[in-house]
Amino acid sequence: MAEKDELAVGVDLGGTSLYAAVVNTGTGQLLGEAKCKTKPKRGAVGVTERIVTTIASAMSEAGVKRDDVIGVGIGVPGPIDARAGIVIRLTNMGSTWDGFPLAQTLAKLSGLSVSIDNDVNVGAVGEHRFGAGRGASDMVALFVGTGLGGGVILGNKLRTGFRGSAGEVGHMVVMAEGESCGCGEQGHAEAYASRTAIERSIRRAIHAGEQSSLAEIVQEDKSVRLTAKYIQRAYMEGDDVTVRAVQSAQYYLGLLIADCVNLLDPEAIVVGGGVLERMGDAYLEPVRGVARQHFLNKHAMESVRIVAAELGDASGAIGAAVQASQRLQRAAF
Ligand SMILES: [Zn+2]
């Protein structure tokens, strides 16, 4: 059994499901896990109660008691105030989260100390400590899914910025007055390089009358989402519409990575999220080519590693546990 101060619970709160794991923050090993549906309709307090139950299941699977863990770290899908332990807003989960004191409420219900973070930032911490970014002092993580999130590690430390919103790479402008972004503005990277962007291109081509193996799904039921699974299948079949949509997303992801490298010159860019998990490292080959073309410093450019994430769905919970162990230990001194 690891030392008491090495164990922490990491929680990844998503709009659909929530996941908790007991993590050895010295080794990254998962000692117990539990998952359940979030049921966001129950509101902030109702969901927090579900988080408590999920944490209890993970701890029971790991065979640990409250005194065995330093506390809980939780990653939430939106902006937070880490110092105050408050959620600022969770757009997809309803207004009961606006200004919700999550750290305090969860601490009261669970009897554990709690630290909160943004989910993408803790994903970056997880990949940096135990995943594809291991050993890099400076690293940028990009997560490509429904949205496009990012996290910045400099000098082995997560950088959250002056107002806690550093790393919002998905909302960097890649096309002036371009496509609409999920945030309401136009021309952001998320509107060109996310799964949602690929889906939009495919739907647009099909509605314009182009042949595609996805046409049946798209026309039959408007509510069906073109998940990474559908996109990958059509891509592998060589479906022209899908191949073009994917190539366009890869191109803009390459530009975005070049922007990050020109700004920070990190040792590693780690790319994760649903699309990467489905399509694998092959997805990154054309991305690397575009990125390197736009690096200003072309010296030893292969040494800037552009690599696929390694921890999959667990990166957020692992990173949240790491953050909790650092923050809560410090608080104890
Ligand atoms: Zn945006």
Subunit arrangement of the protein = single chain
* Main sheet overview: 5 strands, mixed
CATH T-level fold name of the largest domain:
Nucleotidyltransferase, domain 5
Portion in strands: 15-25%
Structural account:
By secondary structure, the protein is an alpha/beta fold. It has 2 domains: 4-124 and 314-332, Nucleotidyltransferase, domain 5 (2-Layer Sandwich); 136-310, Nucleotidyltransferase, domain 5, CATH 3.30.420. Helix content is 40%, strand content 19%. It is built from 11 helices and 12 strands. It has helices spanning 43-62, 102-110, 119-130, 190-193, 195-207, 215-220, 228-236, 240-264, 274-279, 284-294, 315-332; strands spanning 7-13, 17-24, 30-37, 72-76, 80-81, 86-87, 114-118, 139-144, 148-154, 157-159, 268-272, 305-308. The strands form 3 sheets. It has a 5-stranded mixed beta sheet. Strands 10-9-8-11-12 form a 5-stranded mixed beta sheet, sandwiched between helices. The chain has a two-stranded antiparallel sheet with strand order 5-6. The chain is globular and about 60 Å long. The two termini are 24 Å apart. The mean pLDDT is 94. The protein binds zinc ion. Zinc ion is lined by residues 171, 181, 183, 185, 188, 190.
Task: Map the helices and strands.
Blueprint: E1 7-13, E2 17-24, E3 30-37, H1 43-62, E4 72-76, E5 80-81, E6 86-87, H2 102-110, E7 114-118, H3 119-130, E8 139-144, E9 148-154, E10 157-159, H4 190-193, H5 195-207, H6 215-220, H7 228-236, H8 240-264, E11 268-272, H9 274-279, H10 284-294, E12 305-308, H11 315-332
Parallel strand pairs: 1-4, 4-7, 8-11, 11-12
Antiparallel strand pairs: 1-2, 2-3, 5-6, 8-9, 9-10
This protein binds zinc ion.
Residues 171, 181, 183, 185, 188, 190 line the site of zinc ion.
